Amino acid sequence: MMLRIAIVDDQELLRGGVAMVINSQPDMTVAFQASNGADAVAALGRTQVDVVVMDVRMPVMDGIEATARIQRVPEPPRVLILTTFDLDESALAALRAGASGFLLKEAPAEELLAAIRQVHQGDTIVAPSTTARLLEQLVSGSTPRADPLTDRLSAREVDVVRLIARGQSNAEIASTLYLSETTIKTHVRSILRKLRVRDRVQVVIAAYESGLMGPR
C-alpha cells in the first residue's frame, strides 16, 4: 500500500528536504506540499491523503487551526505535527485539536519515517516518553474534567488507559496485565469507541485531562 503524504510548512527548504526523504521510500509518495494551513485545507478538498506532516507555526493559518479543520472533513487523514521544542504548548494544542502525534524538526530521517508509519497505523503513540512528558507538565496541573474516565470505562479498561498513557504498546500491556494481545486490542477498540476518539494519543490526552494520570 502506497502512503500518500502531505507536507505543510512555511519553510521551502524544510519542505523540500522532507519530500526527498519521503519520496525515497518504496511505500510513500508526496501527494502535495503547502506553505500554510489554509492552502493545505483547500488542497485536501481535492487530493486524497493518508498523513499530513504539519508545522505548528505558520502564517495565514497555523497548524493548530488547520488540524482542527482537517478533523471536520469526511475520513480525515492523520496529522503529525512538527515542532522546534519538545515542551511546546502549541504542540499540545494541536494534539487537542486532533493531531495524532508530534515530532521534533531536528529528528533524523529514519525517525520521521517511522513516525509517519506509526501515525498512519494509529496503534502507536509517536515518541511516547516525550508526549507523556509534555502532557504531564502542561495538562496535569489543570482542573480535571467533571466527567472522569472511570464513569465511562470498565475497571480493566481504566488499567489499559493508564498503561497506554505510560507509552506501552499492546504487547507490553498484554504482558503487564497477563492477558493476550488480542484481548488488549479488543479493550483498546472499546476505549476508542467509548471516548469517541480516533487514536491512542487522544486517549493519553483524555487520561491526563481527566486527572487519571497525576504527576510522577
Largest sheet: 5 strands, parallel
Helix content: 40-55%
Average pLDDT figure = 86
Order of strands, widest sheet: 2-1-3-4-5
Any low-confidence stretches, pLDDT <50, length ≥5?
none
Shape: globular
The Rg value, from CA coordinates, equals 17 Å
- Our count of helices gives 10
Strand content: 5-15%
Note the run of SSEs as H and E: EHEHEHEHEHHHHHH
Looking at how many chains there are and whether they match, the oligomeric state comes to single chain
Give the termini distance in whole angstroms: 41 Å
Please name the CATH architecture of the largest domain. 3-Layer(aba) Sandwich
Structural class assignment: alpha/beta
DSSP summary, beta strand count: 5
CATH topology of the largest domain: Rossmann fold
Question: For the record, what CATH class of the largest domain applies?
Answer: Alpha Beta
Q: How would you name the CATH homologous superfamily of the largest domain?
A: Response regulator
Please, how many domains?
2
Kindly list the characteristics that best describe this protein:
alpha/beta; Rossmann fold; Arc Repressor Mutant, subunit A; 2 domains; 5-stranded parallel β-sheet
Description:
This protein has ten helices and five strands. Helix 1 (12-23) links the parallel strand 1 and strand 2. It is 49% helix and 13% strand. The chain has a five-stranded parallel sheet, with helices on both faces. The chain is of the alpha/beta class. The mean pLDDT is 86. The chain has helices at residues 12-23, 37-44, 63-70, 89-97, 109-121, 128-138, 155-165, 170-177, 181-195, 200-209, and strands at 3-8, 28-34, 51-55, 78-83, 101-104. The protein folds into two domains: 3-121, Rossmann fold (3-Layer(aba) Sandwich), CATH 3.40.50; 142-209, Orthogonal Bundle (Arc Repressor Mutant, subunit A), CATH 1.10.10.
